[in-house]
Every structure is written in C-alpha cells, then in structure tokens.
Amino acid sequence: MKVIAVLPGIAQGLLADALPDWVEPHFFITKDEAIALAPKAEIGWFDMYDKGDMAKAIAQARSMKWLNSIYAGVDGMPLELLSERGVTVTNGAGINAITIAEYVVMGMLTVAKGYREVVRAQDRQEWLHDSPGKAELFGSKALLLGYGAIGKLIEERLKGFGVETTAVRRTPGPGTLGPDEWRGKLATFDWVILAVPATPETEKMIGEAELSFMKSSATLVNIARGTVVDQEALVAALQDGQIGAAFLDVTDPEPLPAGHPLWTLDNAHITMHLSGRAQTLMFQRAGQRFLENLGRYKEGAALLHSVDLTLGY
After folding, report:
1. Which of 136, 254, 292, 296 is the catalytic position?
2. pLDDT band for position 301 (50/70/90)?
3. In a domain, 311, yes or no
4. Which one, out of 137, 167, 207, 276, has a CA that is 20 to 30 A from the CA of 224?
5. Residues 106, 247: Cα–Cα separation, whole Å
6. What's the pLDDT tens digit per position in 218-235?
7. Does 277 participate in catalysis according to the annotation?
8. Measured between alpha carbons, how far is 228 from 222 in angstroms, rounded to an integer?
C-alpha cells in the first residue's frame, strides 16, 4: 500500500523525482484542489498564503497523520483539532533563519545610517553633503526576545558589528535574562528585537508600558508577528517620539491597509513581511527537510522539527 501525500504544486519540481516509490503524491495548485484532495492525505503539506484556506484544507484531512509546513510560525493552524486527531506537525523553523537574520542587520543599519533618506535623495537627484544618520552599531546594546534558530543567528551576526546582545530565555544563564526580568531592563538597550513565536503568551508583549520603558532613541525591530506588539500603542509612541524608530517586517493586519498611520511615519520602516522571502533557497531547504523526514516517517522514527501543539511552537 502506498502512502498518499498531498503536496503544494510549487514544490513539484523539487520533489517529484526524489520521492520514494512508497509515496503516492498528489499536487495541488489552488485552494479548491487542496480541499478536494485533503481527505485522501496521510501526509499533508497544505501551505497557502491565506491561513484561513489552509485551515479549511487541514480540517478536511481527517486521515492525516503528519502535517508538514514551510512556515516557522503555526499561528492560524487549527492546533487544537490537530492535537485531538493525534497529527504530528513539523514546521519550517530555521529554514528562513539566515535571510531573516540578515534582514535584521539591514534594518538596524538602515535606521542607524538614515539610509532611507539617502535613497530619497537619489530619487530627487540631490547630492547630500552629510549623512542623515550618525549612529554606529558598534558599542550599542540589543535585547533579543526569542532565542530560537533566528535569534541565535541574529546574535552571531551582531557580534561581528560589536553589538552587545542580551537574549531572553525561559532558562536564563550567563549573559541572558529570564522571562520576568527583561521589562525592568528595557531602558538600557538601544535595540529591542522581537523574534518570538506568536502564542497567547506573546500576544501584545510589547505594549504601552514596555514602550514607555524604552530609551527615547531606541529602535524596535519586529520580525516575529504583528500581534506581539500593541500596534496602536506603537503608533502613539512613534508619533510622540517616545521611542526613536521601529523597523517592522510584520504588522497587524497584513497587508497593512492603505491610509494606516504607520505608512506615513518617518520613524516607521515597513518591509511587508519580505524578510523570509529575500532568498532563493527557501523551497530547496524545505524540500530537503521534507525528504529527510519522509525517511524517518517510514522507519517510525521521531520527525525532525516537530511542533509542541500545546505550546504552539
């Protein structure tokens, strides 16, 4: 008996010739195809841009034993339903970590050097005689909330710039802070970087109080999810100069509606959730991981990068 796997058509070129003969693949292009194929799936990979459509397909996959995803964050998936059905979920943690870590460095340099104003001057064909940004990363201090694959790579890259990085961890050690310690230390950091998963615990973890504790020159960098920040409080803090700037790869909602005040603030940088897409190897890495896990699935071994459905990551 072959195992039926329902897979995204975008990965067909990578997987079709590499799948073992015990797998019967069915590839989908549209959401309707995914939903129609879902009841056949023992293995499912239902990644879609619209998380609602993805959840509908997952709900129809009543025989599914393993759900794979390229996404690191599993917010938007019906985790309770998956847990009830005993489905093993594997995610894309780490697949986009390199490019996202590079994006964080880019964002910090953009803010520090005022690079957006340099680009605007070029558009005006105006020769600037001084730099619009004078800050150096060297000697600055960064607080890193979230110390998974992305957080570790951010820390590694910032060391090369001479940034003193402090990570927040559930089990703190040397050079780190515990989950109940970081808020009281916010005033000591020039950069507050968010790389946490989206869970009920992290929702609006940066709100009015946290923003008020930050330096007036500090920058908030969010490459996590828009929901981990109280966006209304952030807009007010940026408008009032309570913090220096925000570099936001994520917002709530997405896409950010036209006319939203974040679009117009000079100290807000919006990068449209592009950090993980600024690469060419995402699907190659995801495909290689999926194939490796297929071998483990056949052997009955534990799958790599499994999600704890109770924690949400």
Report:
1. 254
2. very high
3. no
4. 137
5. 10
6. 999 999 999 999 999 999
7. no
8. 9
